Amino acid sequence: MPYADGNLAHAVDPDRGVMHFAEAGSMRDRLIVGLDLPTLSEAEKAVRELEGAVSFYKIGYQLAFAGGLDFARELASGGTKVFLDMKLLDIDNTVAKGVENIVKMGMTMLTLHAYPRAMRAAVEAAKGSDLCLLGVTVLTSMDEQDVIDAGYEYDPHTLVLRRSEQALHAGMGGIVCSAEEAQAVRRIVGPDLAVVTPGIRPSGSDHGDQKRVVTPAQAIRNGASHLVVGRPIVKAPDRRAAAEAILAEMQSA
Ligand code: C5P
Q1: CATH superfamily of 9-252
Q2: Model confidence over 8-62: pLDDT tens digits?
Q3: Residue 235: CB within 6 Å of ligand 1?
């Protein structure tokens, strides 16, 4: 039963105790900018440049290992939503203890690889908190051959759907997948879970290492609740203009 908090509808599921995000909310609340930058001062500069245009940031490996965890706490205590992209995977106890401490940091979202045991341990550890746990299905930089090389017998699409089902059953708050798969994932997880899609590229932009890419408008049409955009914004000569252009594309959908 989602309720409105600002523009973003979300709720703590009383049975499972994990935070769920619904699809509702303004486009601005649904754009997450990946602060994939080498230093804290560059990240602070990007946040200053994007002030007012962006209200949700993702902090991943690069910044986390350059002072980004304290910066994440700082942003969160100032009311900015932070998605901590740690892609956790370890034995159950280690995952649970890590999640317990991340809950204390005031983060909005956290990723772990969508392995059933890790997801169940994380859900138990986050119970009663408002942390939205996201299961990373298959990285958007992976294609069929990469999945085979990693030892799986599934094609990326099948593996994404299987892991989405497992994430739903584990009680996760959402899924990370390519927007190419968002429609099929949405059918599996229902309307309330977050479907967060990286690999977003405005038409005509550089794909970099991403292979399963989709435009911002198409991602929204496919049922994504949140779009993660890194390089197309943080590497743009005018970051604010790039973010506004992506928001306009999202709104056009
Ligand atoms: O620069 P770009 O827009 O490709 O950044 C996408 C971000 O989303 C990166 O920080 C990457 O680590 C993250 N991500 C991803 N694919 C996933 C999960 C996270 O690209 N499946």
Answers
A1: Aldolase class I (3.20.20.70)
A2: 344 555 455 455 555 446 899 999 999 999 999 999 999 999 999 999 999 999 9
A3: no
Atom of ligand 1 nearest to the CA of 58: 10
Q: Does the beta carbon of 35 sit less than 6 angstroms from any atom of ligand 1?
A: no
Distance 233 CA to ligand 1 centre (A): 13
Contact 3, 158 (CB under 8 A): no
Q: Residue ranges of the domains in the chain?
A: 9-252
Exposed, middle or buried: residue 63 (CB in 10 Å: 0-12, 13-18, 19+)?
A: buried
Q: What is the pLDDT of residues 143-179, one digit of tens each?
A: 999 999 999 998 999 999 999 999 999 999 999 999 9
Please state, in angstroms and rounded to a whole number, the distance separating the CA atoms of residues 35 and 154. 32
In one-letter notation, the amino acid at residue 100 is: E
Catalytic residues: 87
